[in-house]
Amino acid sequence: MKRQKIHLKAPDNWVNDPNGFIYYKGYYHVFYQYFPYGPRWGTMHWGHAVSKDLVNWEHKGIALFPTKKDDQNGCFSGSAVEKDGQMYIIYTGVRYEESNSEDIHVHPDIHFEATQMMITSPDGYTFDNWTDKKRIIPPITDPSIGHRMHTRDPKIWRGKDAWYMILGSTLDEKEGTALFYKSEDLLNWEYVNRACKPSLPGWMWECPDYFETEGGKVLLLSVIGILENGGRTEEHTICFEVGFQEDTCEMTIPDAYQFLDYGLDLYAAQTTLDEAGRRVMIAWLRMPEKTDAGWIGMFSSPRVVTIRDGHICFQMHPNIRQAYDRRIADISDASPAGYMACFDLEDGEHVDIGGFRIYREDGRICTDRTAVSASVKRNISQTPALQGTAHLEVLVDPHMIEVFINDGAYVITNAVYHLGPYMTSSVPKTIQLHTTTEDI
């Protein structure tokens, strides 16, 4: 199977949301939305990759694929938990109400049913798609709770006395909402409560993830319609520090939110606990077109989520930083996995990495990928204004650049194409370059 380092990429064809992110029996497992028949969106399967260290990844092929009426048009996003040594995966199955005679992999009228389903594995590698899958939550019929079509992406966690689930949904396709369910056995689920924020723009909440981490409690949401940009509505992932009462599943969501990543290319983030108990996040990099090699879609490097002084931070995972263990004098000496550039930026200074420009203006860290972009309208990204010196750690991959600012206080991640083999700078200080060892 294909091996990759630092950034997990599509093995071929198309990938999107990371699913079932879990540390299980000594390995990190990342499943992902996968269309195995071409570099385009279509009937979703679950691809599968594993790692011992969050650095070196190995693809393991297809784990889940449609076999039942409830998921005949796709095994969509979900999560994984461990119970009594077994892996339990809960995901959204989709059934189109009409078929498309010209292309069975897309729906003709956007009418479908969404069902929450389960499959188990004794080892995290073998899945009986033919007999083991079962419906655990049927399509919602009460519109005051959620939407029959647009309820999806279950995230499961173990609470103090039971299992809990959060689902993304919408009220009448006008207002996003999150639904909370509770179960004693992972099989029988009871609806408990829902959370919404009428003042928040957007009509649909996708890929919700609630968790506790160092410093507080966090809610991640991928919101359809959160921004208006260039005349079209866009969907982005945001985060809040929230209050949550487990016994009633009552969630308090503040007015203010942060973007998960200020490059606005990441979406559908999912978290888990790593081997050391840190809360770790990965997300899908939305790529506007396929690469020259014919694949499309990859994932961010794993990031540790913490709250510092009321601000949610996404720090580079220590395993990732340690992987860049070889100092180099020039980017031409970098391994195929790319390199890390470290430097400080004051106002008016800039660094150009192969056509990808990083600069500081009015206190903000900004990036401009105009020279290395594909068919996208938005090429300039920026953080809020920062005080003092900004220290940057920049991970450079041929198709992704991640700019970590002040130890993850902010991150800008952008998809890029055809980076040049050069680096120029107005920074008077030394830029330190590090790369990885090539063996994986």
What would you note in describing this structure?
The structure is a single chain. With 440 residues, this protein is mainly β. The chain folds into two domains: 3-319, Glycosyl hydrolase domain, family 43 (Tachylectin-2, Chain A); 324-435, Exo-inulinase, domain 1 (Jelly Rolls). The protein contains one helix and 35 strands. It has a six-stranded antiparallel sheet, with no helix packed on it. β12 and β13 form a beta hairpin. It is globular and about 60 Å long. The two termini are 13 Å apart.
Short note summarizing the structure:
With 440 residues, this protein is mainly beta.
Q: Can you tell me the number of structural domains?
A: 2
Radius of gyration: 21 Å
Low-confidence stretches: none
- Beta fraction of the residues? over 45%
What's the CATH H-level homologous superfamily of the largest domain?
A: Glycosyl hydrolase domain, family 43
The number of helical segments is 1
CATH class of the largest domain: Mainly Beta
Kindly, what is the distance between the CA atoms of the first and last residues, rounded to a whole number of angstroms? 13 Å
Please name the CATH architecture of the largest domain.
5 Propeller
Strand order of the biggest β-sheet: 25-35-26-31-32-33
Helix- and strand-based class? mainly beta
The strand count comes to 35
Helical content stands at: under 10%
How does the major sheet shape up? 6 strands, antiparallel
The shape, in one word, is globular
